[in-house]
Write a structure and sequence with these properties.
This protein is of the alpha+beta class. About 20% of the residues lie in helices and about 30% in strands. It has two domains: about 90 residues, OB fold (Dihydrolipoamide Acetyltransferase, E2P), CATH 2.40.50; about 150 residues. Strand 6 and strand 7 form a beta hairpin.
Length: about 270
């Protein structure tokens, strides 16, 4: 087992939490290492159980003890010691060029999902950022009754535990009622189009906040359209594969700075 190493990591995304038998809950958390610009996933990250002074946001620096995850074969997966997490500065949205620099300098920036999958086949690269050529659709779909029943089964099993290895008492997680589906085309002749449900925690929180609003679905879709508008923004989609189905990549989060001016061409 590798020794712990202290690293500084820029958080770039976090998915909605799910129940964990061992840690009560875990949110898939992606970041970029300061020293290498390599994209990494860190877990376990039981965000709601962290001390208030340890809770972090997108594009915030953290320092933590990490090591290669001994139970996860994906090379970018790091086990983090949650108690070691120390939060640092946030790169504010007003400094989008600085945020963009870390994404664009990362060796995990690819032109397409197809190119990312090529790298997975070659060297097991399991995380990547892509810039879609066209966003072709955004829609919300209700999650199935079977998915809700499976969630409830895990919830009942967890909440009935009297002791836990890591945390207690466990907290209930609201069932994610919908999927936030995004369709797009990549800038790659092999691309026939992709559709994935975005797992971003912030979207789930927005949906929850609008629970009593009869126009909730429309407002969420409108918000997604505004965030992923390629006419005014350079959109980066953050993808990663799943530990249980490593051949399958999912849409974890996104980053949408304003479009960069193309100097000398008279256009933006």
């Amino acid at each position: 087992m590798e020794p712990w190493t202290t690293k500084r990591i820029l958080i770039i995304g976090m998915t909605y939490p799910a129940y964990s038998k061992k840690y009560a809950e875990n949110a898939c958390t992606g970041g970029i290492e300061e020293s290498t610009y390599r994209m990494v996933r860190i877990h376990p990250v039981p965000v709601r159980y962290l001390e208030a002074t340890q809770r972090f946001h997108k594009f915030q620096w953290i320092t933590a003890k990490v090591r290669q995850h001994e139970q996860d074969p994906r090379p970018e997966s790091l086990r983090v010691e949650p108690s070691s997490i120390s939060v640092g500065d946030v790169i504010p949205a007003t400094k989008s060029d600085e945020r963009r620099r870390y994404v664009e300098k990362s060796p995990h920036l690819f032109k397409s999902v197809e190119e990312l999958k090529d790298r997975w086949d070659k060297d097991r690269t399991s995380l990547g950022a892509i810039k879609p050529k066209e966003i072709t659709g955004i829609r919300l779909t209700a999650r199935s009754a079977a998915a809700k029943a499976e969630w409830k089964e895990k919830e009942d099993a967890l909440l009935s535990q009297t002791t836990m290895e890591f945390l207690k008492p466990p907290k209930k997680i609201d069932f994610p009622e919908v999927e936030f589906n995004v369709s797009w085309l990549c800038d790659d002749t092999r691309c026939k189009g992709h559709e994935m449900g975005m797992l971003q925690w912030g979207l789930h929180e927005l949906y929850r906040k609008l629970a009593k609003d009869p126009a909730r679905n429309k407002k969420v879709v409108d918000s997604m359209h505004a965030d992923l508008d390629l006419r005014s923004k350079d959109v980066f989609l953050f993808l990663g594969n799943f530990r249980g189905k490593m051949f399958n990549f999912g849409l974890m989060d996104s980053f949408s700075p304003g479009r960069r001016r193309q100097l000398g061409l008279g256009i933006e």
